[in-house]
């Protein structure tokens, strides 16, 4: 909306990055058509993930139909957010409302004014979260970062040397606390920009240089390949898994340099998520190069302590935690 006027009063803009959980805020709007209504509450949480790109401000300020688009204001009279949505099972306010941080709103407005559309960056990875148990098993320490399940062939991450099974811990100098942080942080980077990306791989940190590409709405998802029929032999393994070597043709087809093919699993390993046809590439950060090495490593594992297997399934990778047992159990 644009009007021809001068000397209009204007609100001051605050810094949404400086807000604190527990501080008082007010919302102004027209709920149910009741104009200039002011409601008050506190900031309940920051960076609430309800979508891929916007870290919402969560409050307990009463927000109802007619409040959307109105300002969220701090006690200094500064706009720190734009009231956007609520969580409700009835359609009415239930104590949980969300506002778009004003910093994000201004960034989007600037892009719209400059180009007429919003551009977001992407690097071409499918990701998953990192559990506490997994972090402890692979030596990461605490559950931070985004686990790379698959890497888009020819994409920005692929060109930078990222691999399925990497855990991205920092991007463009910003720490990835949760997996959901990564799409937002990558999306904020201008396409074509070269930035550092820190990954945790096989027990060590390394830094890759990524040239961010432009996000497109249509992306291809990897399909899982059919798995061969199970065979016997898993009962002799302390982790309930029987595996065989990969030949050169299989390695080329799967896009791996090493690993072993799972040909049989016991019920315990199957419950943990392992399947016949999976390819195990590492065990507790140790690269698996042969079936004999796989068996020898499994034989040295202490019973009951989780072991982290990095597994390729189709075009995707994931960590699976299995608890070894004593032979004969």
TrEMBL record:
Enzyme Commission numbers on file: 3.4.21.107
GO biological process assignments: proteolysis
UniProt-listed PROSITE patterns: PDZ
Keywords: Hydrolase, Periplasm, Protease, Stress response
Signal peptide (from-to): none
Subcellular compartments: Periplasm
GO MF terms, alphabetically ordered: serine-type endopeptidase activity
Annotated region described as Disordered, given as residue ranges: 216-236
Chief location: periplasm
Catalytic activity: Acts on substrates that are at least partially unfolded. The cleavage site P1 residue is normally between a pair of hydrophobic residues, such as Val-|-Val
InterPro entries: PDZ, PDZ_6, PDZ_sf, Peptidase_S1_PA, Peptidase_S1C
Enzyme class: hydrolase
Domain PDZ: 120-180, 243-315
Gene3D superfamilies assigned to the protein according to its UniProt record, in alphabetical order: 2.30.42.10, 2.40.10.120
Family: Belongs to the peptidase S1C family.
Name this polypeptide is given: Probable periplasmic serine endoprotease DegP-like
Species this chain originates from: mine drainage metagenome
């Amino acid at each position: 909306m644009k009007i021809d006027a001068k000397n209009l009063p204007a609100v001051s803009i605050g810094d949404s990055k400086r807000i604190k959980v527990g501080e008082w805020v007010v919302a102004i709007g027209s709920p149910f058509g009741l104009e200039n209504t002011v409601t008050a509450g506190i900031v309940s949480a920051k960076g609430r993930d309800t979508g891929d790109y916007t870290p919402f401000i969560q409050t307990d300020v009463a927000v109802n139909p007619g409040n959307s688009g109105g300002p969220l204001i701090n006690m200094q009279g500064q706009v720190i957010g734009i009231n956007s949505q609520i969580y409700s099972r009835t359609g009415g306010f239930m104590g949980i409302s969300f506002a778009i941080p004003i910093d994000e709103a201004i960034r989007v407005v600037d892009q719209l004014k400059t180009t007429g559309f919003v551009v977001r960056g992407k690097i071409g990875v499918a990701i998953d979260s990192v559990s506490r148990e997994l972090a402890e098993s692979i030596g990461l320490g605490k559950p931070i970062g985004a686990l790379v399940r698959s890497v888009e062939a020819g994409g920005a991450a692929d060109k930078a040397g990222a691999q399925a099974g990497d855990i991205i811990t920092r991007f463009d100098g910003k720490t990835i606390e949760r997996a959901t942080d990564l799409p937002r942080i990558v999306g904020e980077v201008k396409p074509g920009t070269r930035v550092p990306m820190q990954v945790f791989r096989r027990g060590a940190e390394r830094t890759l240089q990524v040239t961010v590409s432009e996000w497109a709405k249509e992306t291809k998802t990897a399909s899982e390949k059919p798995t061969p029929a199970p065979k016997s032999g898993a009962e002799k393994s302390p982790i309930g898994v029987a595996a065989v070597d990969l030949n050169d043709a299989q390695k080329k087809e799967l896009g791996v340099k090493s690993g072993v093919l799972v040909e049989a699993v016991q019920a315990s390993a199957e419950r943990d998520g392992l399947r016949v046809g999976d390819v195990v590439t590492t065990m507790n950060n140790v690269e698996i190069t042969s079936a004999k090495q796989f068996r020898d490593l499994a034989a040295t594992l202490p019973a009951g302590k989780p072991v982290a297997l990095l597994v390729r399934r189709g075009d995707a990778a994931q960590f699976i935690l299995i608890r070894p047992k004593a032979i004969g159990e």
